[in-house]
Amino acid sequence: MKFGISQNGSEDLLEYPINQVKGILYREASNVRHYENLKFLLNCYKTQEEAERALSLFYQGKLPPLPPINLNLGGFSMSDPYLVACGTTNFDVFSIYMMNLCSLLGIQKFLNLGNEYSDIKKYPQKVKELIYCERKEWLPKPVKLWRNKVAAHYAAADPKKEDNILTLMSSLSVIPNYSFPRYTVSSMNIVINGESSQLQEWSVTRVYDELVDKLALRPLAPLINTLLIGPNGEKDPLLTHS
Question: What whole-number distance in Å separates Cα of residue 110 and Cα of residue 115?
Fold first, then answer.
């Protein structure tokens, strides 16, 4: 027996939950992109209020000419607007739902082979193999590590034999860092006794942008810096670095 919620007359009963998860991924990545653009505009304006006003105009397609840009390419600050507002929440939710999307895509392939839900119980290993293939295809290793060691549960709360001390520590203390022009996590590589955290640096928006065409995701608003041109019409390689 097959049961599910169809969408737009589709016979694919997993289309609805897949689109729902894609919507959640867009929501999380879009929020990060908002703060990436706000952070960039904070290099142009003296106050956050002015930067937010310019960002609102950008969303309306009316970005004004920007004041001189004094780029802060990176660094850590506990007063960072994204850190204060969101912490790692978007990274946590994004990593969990990227794993969920891969699971749905694997199950979708299994059902589209003519199988039914009762066959999932009969052939669980086949389902797991299909899901594993989807994870291998779409789930970057740093995102999977983040999901397993931070988002789903802290490594320090469920330590594995292979987890070193810095991994346990960073699972409780890692925070977003602005590395122009994106926010990332796990970018600070502290070494103690020759070991560093096994968590790896990644960016929600970079991962999302790279999957837009491949997984038919809704595109994000562009990074403002990629739209800027120099006085002679050239794109500044520093400003367009992504």
Answer: 6
CB 74 within 8 A of CB 16: no
242: pLDDT confidence band, cut at 50, 70 and 90?
very low
- pLDDT attached to residue 9: 58
Please tell me the distance from the alpha carbon of residue 107 to that of residue 101, in angstroms, as a whole number. Answer: 10
How far, rounded to the nearest angstrom, does the alpha carbon of residue 217 sit from its chain's CA centroid? 13
- Give the separation between CA 150 and CA 153, rounded to whole angstroms: 5
Q: Judge whether residue 235 has pLDDT over 70.
A: no
- Asked whether the beta carbons of 14 and 4 are under 8 A apart, the reply is yes
Count of Cβ atoms closer than 10 Å to residue 99 Cβ: 22
In angstroms, the CA 18 to CA 96 distance is 14
d(CA 41, CA 91): 22
Peptide bond between residue 237 and the one before it cis (omega within 30 degrees of 0):
no
Which helix (H) or strand (E) segment holds residue 232: the answer is none
pTM: 0.90
Q: Which two tokens stand for residue 98?
A: 């990227």
Q: What is the pLDDT of residue 10?
A: 60
